[in-house]
Design brief:
alpha+beta, Rossmann fold, 3 domains, 7-stranded mixed β-sheet, 27% strand, binds adenosine-5'-triphosphate
Length: 475
């Protein structure tokens, strides 16, 4: 295993050990590609959500947020093209019965080749995918003698399309029941509400509608922990613009979304843009923001210029006019759309991978190490841990007074067990930016020791200033 793979395995174990992410229904041996967030994971996830929501809705006066239902009228998915087009080319190995997404199978093989050969293979694959040339893809797999990792054979079926939507029944009586889908993206909930929001909010183009919510995809190859899940959450924003201005807005949102990522203090070298080679059926331009995960540069967010495709399709299928009257130019039109779509779970994984550090703190006298999550303070699940030095002499009481004063503003944690050093390590492991120790001197002069997670520096500050020190860092 490479060091990066080792690091990734260590991150997965860390997420479990410290209550960030658990396998769903683990006591029944789990459900593949479905995960639960534990006590710290749920906090971190919520903080990421809030940071995105605020940056969209509070910091832009022309963007509002909605919360649409997961279930939608089945015609929605006919109109959006998902019933006919939301599928991936798949291939099965006849000996192992294992099914692969064709692009993943070829990409996996390309990684084992020298760089130039790998790139040439990927270029050939991209060309065939663009043409939907399934026979060509199968030949490419055969020519390159790409084997199934389970059976080790090259006994492949034809390449076929496989729809990724989950379906279920609505209605109690079988005859009445109709098939509906679990939404594979949150965007359509925004499109079908375009007029509702525009009219009731008296919104003027250009304006945006944001939404955070669950999406479901029957991913065939689910790997890499929470990178690719069957149930996940998206944070999407559809920005409605005047036709002809979409290129300009696309560039603007590309820039703005990258700035959002960098505002969390991540090294810019860890990010890049990757233009889509094969455009989705609705797009006239599309780019991914990719982050360098321990398993390579991978998509975390997509920015798509979706044209007027979705609104026009809903107009046609619902037979209701979905148009906007632009008073500035005295014209009716169907707006064009720029979409920014980021996976909340992927952003969570990115945040953890970016924060995770194993540090060797050994000195000639003593061996020592720590695992620290250098999370941005505003995202950390716990902001302040408070430790009484001992369990007596009124120190726990003083610690609890500080917590009572701070807990209305941010998440605090109280701990009186074990040595201060051990308590620090536990907080480092969950990314708590500040620890405060209450000792006997506190009772004499009202000062405490505040310890900074990343530098491990400690300083003496007045107890009365602790709250503001933390608030300054997390706002
Ligand atoms: P991929 O190519 O990785 O399957 P995609 O291009 O299909 O992703 P989009 O449809 O553009 O993804 O969805 C927008 C975002 O939703 C992605 O950038 C990703 O962060 C997130 N996302 C998509 N599918 C999943 C999934 N199965 N699990 C977790 N997050 C996902």
């Amino acid at each position: 295993m490479s060091t990066d793979q080792n690091k990734f395995q260590a991150i997965i174990s860390h997420c479990k050990e410290y209550g960030f992410v658990f396998q769903s229904s683990e006591i029944y041996d789990g459900l593949s590609a479905v995960y639960d967030y534990g006590q710290y994971g749920a906090e971190l996830k919520k903080n990421i959500k809030d940071y995105w929501w605020k940056s969209m809705t509070q910091l832009h006066e022309n963007i509002v947020g909605i919360d649409a239902a997961i279930f939608m009228h089945p015609t929605t998915w006919k109109a959006s093209g998902h019933v006919d087009n939301f599928s991936d080319p798949m291939i099965d190995n006849r000996d192992s019965n294992k099914r692969y997404r064709v692009d993943h199978l070829i990409e996996g093989h390309a990684e084992t080749l020298p760089e130039a050969a790998g790139n040439a293979l990927l270029a050939q694959m991209d060309e065939l995918l663009k043409e939907n040339d399934f026979a060509g893809l199968k030949s490419l797999i055969e020519e390159n003698k790409i084997k199934c990792s389970v059976s080790g054979t090259v006994n492949w079926t034809e390449v076929r399309q496989f729809n990724l939507m989950f379906s279920t029944q609505l209605g109690s009586v079988t005859e009445e029941a109709s098939e509906i889908f679990l939404r594979p993206e949150t965007a359509q909930g925004i499109f079908v509400n375009f007029l509702n929001v525009q009219k009731t909010g008296r919104m003027k183009v250009p304006f945006g509608i944001a939404q955070i919510g669950k999406a479901f995809r029957n991913e065939i190859v689910a790997r890499q922990f929470i990178f690719r899940m069957r149930e996940f959450e998206q944070m999407e924003m559809q920005f409605f613009v005047r036709p002809g201005t979409q290129q300009e807005w696309y560039e603007k949102w590309k820039e703005e979304r990258m700035q959002w990522h960098l505002s969390l203090g991540t090294d810019p070298a860890k990010y890049h843009f990757k233009d889509h080679i094969k455009l989705a059926h609705y797009a006239d331009a599309a780019v991914d923001i990719e982050y360098e995960f321990p398993f390579g540069f991978k998509e975390v967010e997509g920015i798509h210029s979706r044209t007027d495709f979705d609104l026009k399709q809903h107009q046609e299928y619902s037979k209701k006019k979905i148009q906007y009257f632009d008073t500035e130019i005295n014209q009716n039109y169907v707006p064009y759309v720029i979409e920014t779509s980021i996976g909340l779970d992927r952003m969570f994984l990115l945040t953890i991978c970016n924060a995770y550090e194993e540090q060797d703190l050994s000195t000639p006298e003593k061996q020592d190490s720590r695992v620290v999550l250098k999370l941005p303070a505003k995202l950390a699940p716990v902001k302040l841990a408070v430790f009484p030095l001992t369990k007596k002499d009124g120190l726990p009481e003083a610690a609890k007074i500080l917590i009572d004063e701070c807990k209305k503003f941010f998440h605090c944690y109280y701990e009186e067990k074990d040595s201060i050093g051990k308590r620090y390590r536990r907080q480092d492991a969950i990314g708590t930016p500040f620890c405060v120790t209450i000792d006997h001197q506190t009772k004499e002069d009202g000062t405490v020791t505040i310890r900074h997670r990343d530098s491990m520096e400690q300083e003496r500050v007045p107890l009365s200033e602790v709250r503001n020190i933390v608030l300054n860092k997390i706002m």
